[in-house]
Amino acid sequence: xCNTQNVNPVANKVCANRFKNGFTLAxxxxxxxxxxxxxxxxxxxxxxxxxxxxxxxxxxxxVSTMQMAATAAAESDRRYEVIIDIDEQKFLLREITTPxxxxxLEEEIILQDRLSKNCRLIYVEFDDxxxxxxxxxxxxxxxxxxxxxxxxxxxxxxxxxxxVIVNRLNRIITLEEGDIRLLEPKFNEDMVF
Length: 193
Hints:
By secondary structure, the protein is an alpha+beta fold. The chain contains two helices and ten strands. Helix content is 33%, strand content 28%.
């Protein structure tokens, strides 16, 4: 036991060094607690970032699939189809090889992917006015472009809408924030000139 009134100078020096160089249990617990809080905050931030990136990655995969179909069809004489399955929350890209468009052959499938609960398909609207919020919607691309344009509306984990816009005139697929309104054709009597 260290006693500051000890007459032995060597014993006094050993006692002083022991308190100077060591941590008390309370100090060690405070350091561990602060370190644990930093680790917890980093994990929460990382998981939030991963959830956000999962939505972005999945929407980007859908946009890339649509763009792949348009590009492949433009560069060849083949036809491609992207099937959006709202009920199953998935999509697939296939090369159309038979005249029967209702049946998808296993060898026709190029890519298929399922969306997670962080990225949900809500509905598809075509530029001819056709609308579906259940079942399947099909976007077909040929050498001259898309048969129909339209939009695919998705929700992120915070229920924010995003629209994948399929433009049949220029083959460009874009992702827009919000539920974008499609341009509607005008009748001759609505034109000013």
